[in-house]
Amino acid sequence: MRSVIVYVEILKFLKFFMKAARPILRLGGGGILLTVPFLSFAICCLLRQLKCCRFREQDATDGTHPPEKHGWRLRVQDEPTLLQDVHRLRIEHALRKSEERFRQVVESAPNAMVMINSRGLIEMINAQAERVFGYARSELLGQPIELLVPVRFSAHHPALRASFFAQPQSRPMGEGRDLYGLRKDGSEFPVEIGLNPIETEDGTMVLSAIVDISDRKQKEERIQQALKEKDLLLAEIHHRVKNNLQVIDSLLGLQSARIDDAQVLAMLRDSQTRIRSMALIHQTLYQSKDFARVDFASFLDSLAPTLIASYEIDPSRIALMVHTIGVQLPISAAIPCGLIVNELISNAIKHGFPDGRGGEIEVRLVNETPTEVSLTVSDNGVGLPDDIDPDVTGTLGLQLVSLLTEQLGGSLAIQRANPTRFSLRFPSAKQTESPHVPSPRSGG
């Protein structure tokens, strides 16, 4: 009879157990997978739930089963307790699976991954970290992270680490600074490091993603070297162009000494001032650190006294004032703009103050908008004669002003007197096709 009771109790337990465990036993396809850990738990659970109670001799009058010497009777725990054990199994199984996935992700990451605890001891590394730093995994686990930090930085590293643990958040390490790692052989290499706090049962850990950027740094150094060589080449080009223009200016000066015709001399002198203006732009670029853009304020400050000296004007009779506010022009715009200023100032000096008359010439250059420049050249001289139409004039100077304005993609407005004013507006970012001087439509 006792055997029948035990058999029935075992069947009852298995029924409860299979009913509760069915959700985690079923896998895709409807099959059942009984793993070694699961079977081990089932056996332990069975031994726990089927409690063996040895009976001693008892009086038949106490209401218990008849006394049996050295007999055994099996009892099954309640179903809720069994369900709790199965639920715990499911949670533990999910946690183990999640941890295993995490370790697989870290291990297969393309970057070196190093996890440390709050004491700065290495808890985990991946295969890439072994390759990058040259250590075996067993040599790093349990060691302080300062083992991977260059000596010149290691003294300050514990304080930086403590500050991160005080306020842990995902961020790049040492943003804006150059970081270096230390290999087993003692060599250093540039790195980028991302810090990620990880909450674990043992407290907060920090998982560091480390990237060796040696190749990128070498490429950047080669680019920087190429840029330096380019700057030297451009400086030499501007210097040579400036020297060649000065040679042409000198040749015209020598030629002028052999000419007695006043009109021809005036034409040669105008050509010399144009050449000096272009040479001055190249000189400004040669002395600048930025070969792409011309500091036009510096150019105008140098051009004004050059023109006054070229026309042998007494500075006390005609005052030349320049107002510029931080205007930088690309060379493709600087040369035509410089020639326009040269022509307008020369025009005012030659024709605006006849018979020793005094006055002022004002040049103003400002950025009207982030994309537009305004250039104004004005004087308080006699003004433009009524019979001169700037749009159809045959003089070379005004033709150049009109053509160069078109080249800049700008617009020109003229006020004939009180004061005489030429107002030019053009795009500051306009990239003209070439900085050469266009040919006039007709001679003059």
Explain this structure.
The chain is of the alpha+beta class and 444 residues long. It is built from 12 helices and 15 strands. The strands form 4 sheets. Strands 3, 4, 5, 6, 7 and 8 form a 6-stranded antiparallel β-sheet that branches. Strand 6 and strand 7 (188-200) form a beta hairpin. The longest helix is centred in the middle third of the chain and has 43 residues, at 214-256.
Number of helices: 12
Mean pLDDT, all residues: 75
Beta-strand percentage range: 15-25%
Question: How far is the N terminus from the C terminus?
Answer: 136 Å
Number of strands: 15
Structural class: alpha+beta
The amount of helix comes to 40-55%
Q: Any low-confidence stretches, pLDDT <50, length ≥5?
A: 1-7, 24-36, 50-62, 67-77, 430-444
Q: Describe the main β-sheet briefly.
A: 6 strands, antiparallel
Global Rg: 46 Å
Overall 3D shape: elongated
Order of helices and strands: HHEEHEEHHHHEEEEHHEHEEHEEHEE
